[in-house]
Amino acid sequence: MHSKGNSCCCSFDECKLGTEWLLSRTRHRPKIAVICGSGLGFLAESISNKQAFRYEDIPNFPVSTVPGHDGQLVFGYINDKPCVFMQGRFHLYEGYSLCKVTLPVRMFKLMGVEMIIVTNASGGLCQDFKVGDIMVIKDHINLPGFAGQHPLCGPNDERFGIRFPCMSDAYSKDLRKLALDISTELGYSDFVREGVYCMVSGPNFETVAEARMLHILGSDSVGMSTIPEVTVAKHCGLRVLGLSLITNKVPLDYSNEEKVNHEEVLHISKMRAEMLQNVLNTFIARSDQVETINSC
Ligand SMILES: O=P(O)(O)O[C@@H]1C[C@H](O)[C@@H](CO)O1
Ligand code: HPA
Questions:
Q1: Cβ atoms of residues 218 and 150 within 8 Å
Q2: Enzyme class, one word (predicted)?
Q3: CA distances from 165 to 46, 113, 116, 153 (A)
Q4: How far is the CA of 254 from the centre of ligand 2 (A)?
Q5: 6 within domain boundaries
Q6: What is the pTM of this model?
Q7: Is residue 50 situated within a structural domain?
Q8: Is residue 24 annotated as involved in ligand binding?
């Protein structure tokens, strides 16, 4: 692969170096990766046989700068399933390139991960959504991507995936169905929905006019992450499940005096810990019930 001009800062070799560093220090060989969103690091708490690595120790890994994102990679088991959890993710607004933001996903691929579960905190735009609902992500709108902020811009490395990947089935239908079935079985059907997630770069929360625009465009929730990770995961052939916790309602009219802030986002994440953890752990335990072939 030649590399020129707008070249990627996270080459195959850089991803491989970090992966080999990790694999030489752990016996764990995860098949499932989980990215924990804002305030959702507790999702890694029920892992057994834990082994953790601080991000700053892993070669080429970025470091977390946002409250609610601890900054460690935790290996272990949920039931008998080998997993790796990212307690803390990276965002464009922290100043990282999208290449760097998504570097962990490529490292997961190189270490043999087959499925990724991406979680986040987001603001609800759909009027039916309540604070504390979980949205199983059905599809997304990559707003930064429309403006050229896209993790696959630059030379394409075929060792990861093809130049023009299909995204119409980024969120596996079978995995979504399993997550929804599990939510019903657990008695959570009143709090679990499906919907479209839209990414903005942040770091400010939306104006009323922006929120209205996103709603009209078909977004059910809005956040500042996830889509770059999902895009890179789909590019390299990982199966994807996306879970979004609705931590606030985004005001769509000027009479609404509610003001969202990051502390509230973290508070709601903590409040819904048990429900989200039950859905996630049951999902992981039963994830081998679905065999999905990436169709495009
Ligand atoms: O990492 P996620 O997407 O869960 O974090 C959301 C978006 C912003 O980073 C932050 C705003 O409170 O939470
Ligand atoms: O309302 C929001 N907007 C953008 N990102 C968010 N993350 C949590 N809530 C929000």
A1: no
A2: transferase
A3: 35, 19, 17, 12
A4: 18
A5: no
A6: 0.94
A7: yes
A8: no
